[in-house]
Amino acid sequence: MPLTTAPDPRSTGISAAILRLLLPYHRTTDHAPATAEAFRHQRRRIDGFVNEREPVVFTLPGFPCKSPNPAKVLGHLPDQGERLSLTFLQTLCTDIERIYAPGARVVICSDGHVFGDLIGVPDDRIDAYSDELRAVIRALDLHHLSVFDLRDVLGDLPHDTKRARVHDQYAPTLEALRAEVRADAHTLALYRGITRFLVDDTTDFTGSRSALQRECRRRAYGVIQRSRAWGDLIAQHHPRAVRLSIHPQPVGAGKFGIRLLDAPDAWTTPWHSAALRDSDGRWTLMPRARAERLGRLVHRNGRPSHFEGADTRAAVN
Question: Binning pLDDT at 50, 70 and 90, where does residue 97 land?
């Protein structure tokens, strides 16, 4: 380990400049804009790389699998929403490289297998999604990106065994998590957001609406437990990395919430939606059912890819 020295003012300036590149994409429910100085945790992490003249490493849990609700997505494989999001992350890294020669890289920590049983997505579909994600990264030459998932940690063990090991080793207790939801507004908002997603994504429930909500509240606690466990496992394997999050994060939090694409809802992700390009060329994420009313379906390589507004002439071949 290198000896700890006083921060180099030049390095501190570079770290602040890197943070300023991230700020326009900060995903938060806070209303007041923030400056780079407000993100001290991220600043220290970036300083660590800059002081050693190493590429800045970001970890981003997400890109798990497509929602099982066909009213929200085009299928079970990555489509234009993922391609645009991955390209955005690559561009962010190249922008950093322009002001800091060692550059940056993003490790996408694909977490579908961590809670696939809780969200109702079969493991073979999660494998297919993750494999296609890697194929997209190769095909588009997104060389600043890589994918990390449970296969990198626990190999070819049965998926249920992997989940149990991660949960047992890293997850908080249910009692502790319930207490946190009661006491912390941010955790409560996360719990409610995940519950809403689970309700929306459940398409084969035969009971009443109230029974479904009770069931999804129960599963939401499990999703958060596993998500926390996955976060701790990532931190163990990438201890110096700057942690990004696809969920909204308050200013000054240990995680930096990042917006991959425009969406009307701060919780919307490419794997819970379809991409629509309007007549001005702007991309927005929204549920498939809504995108179908606003545009026409475009295929790419024989698969549904995205929607385009009626006035848009450009098409993806």
Answer: very high
User: SS3 for 297?
Assistant: strand
Dihedral angle of Cα 96, 99, 101, 107, to the nearest 10 degrees = -10
Euclidean distance between CA atoms 174 and 191, whole angstroms: 13
pLDDT tens for each residue of 122-151:
999 999 999 999 999 999 999 999 999 999
Give the tokens for residue 126.
């999660």
pLDDT attached to residue 203: 81
One-letter identity of residue 35: T
Beta-carbon contacts of 79 under 8 Å, excluding residues fewer than 6 positions away, are 73, 270, 274, 275, 300, 303, 304, 305, 306
The rounded Cα 196 to chain-centroid distance in angstroms is 17
pLDDT tens for each residue of 156-211: 999 999 999 999 999 999 999 999 999 999 899 889 989 998 998 888 777 788 99
> What mean pLDDT, rounded, does the chain reach?
90
Query: 229: closest CA among 172, 189, 155, 157?
Result: 172
Assess whether pLDDT exceeds 60 at residue 308.
Answer: yes
Q: Which residue has the higher pLDDT, 274 or 201?
A: 274
The 10 Å Cβ neighbour count of residue 119 is: 22
Contact 80, 300 (CB under 8 A): yes
In sequence order, what are the residues at sequence separation of 6 or more whose Cβ sits closer than 8 angstroms to the Cβ of residue 242?
A: 42, 45, 46, 56, 57, 58, 59, 256
**How many CA atoms, within 13 angstroms, populate the side-chain half-sphere of residue 223?**
24
CA–CA distances in Å: residue 267 to residues 27, 190, 197, 232, 245: 9, 10, 9, 22, 11
Asked if residues 121 and 77 have their Cβ atoms less than 8 Å apart, the reply is no
Q: What strand order describes the sheet that includes 242-245?
A: 145-148, 104-110, 56-62, 242-245, 256-257
Whether the Cβ atoms of residue 307 and residue 277 lie closer than 8 Å to each other = yes
Q: Which amino acid is at 87?
A: T
